[in-house]
Amino acid sequence: DVQLQASGGGLVQPGGSLRLSCAASGFAFSAAPMTWVRQAPKKEVEWVGTSDTKMTTYSPLAMGRFNISRDNARSTLYLEITGLTPDDTATYYCLNADGYRGQGTQVTVSS
Questions:
Q1: Least crowded by CB within 10 Å, which of 15, 36, 47, 59?
Q2: Measured CA distances, 44 to 13, 84, 91 (Å)
C-alpha cells in the first residue's frame, strides 16, 4: 500500500524556520515526482513545489523561502521553510505522481 506520512510541523514564531519531512513507502520513490502542497483553513489547496528526478520547480509563493529536497535512500521528501509568516499557517501535505495525498502536518506561525 502507498503511504505518505508528513511530519515536522508545529507552532513557530514569525521569522522562524521549519523542516518538514514526508516518509514514503509502497512505490518507487526514487523515480517518482513528489509534490508539496498546503491548505490553510477555509482556503483552497496551494501548490508549493515539485521535485522530480532532474529538477525542482516552485510556486511563486515558495520562491526564496522554501527549499524542497529528497533523500532517495530513505524514501523521504523534505520541505525547508525559512522566514515563516502567519500566512504560512496551513496543513502541509506531500503527494506522489498518482495524486495520492497522505496525512499532512500542521504548521502554525504565531507569536
A1: 15
A2: 24, 20, 11
Cα–Cα distance for residue pair 80/67, rounded to 1 Å: 5
Q: What angle do CA 109, 110, 111 make, to 5 degrees?
A: 140
Quick check: 102 pLDDT over 90?
Answer: no
Q: Pairing relation of β-strands 10-12 and 105-109?
A: parallel
Distance of CA 45 to the CA centre of its chain: 12
C-alpha cell at 86: 502567519
The position carrying cell 500500500 is 1
Q: pLDDT tens-digit profile of 16-75? A: 999 999 999 999 999 999 999 999 999 999 999 999 978 999 999 998 999 999 999 999
Q: Provide the CB-side half-sphere exposure for 72 (13 A, CA).
A: 10
Kind and range of the H or E element at 62? Answer: none
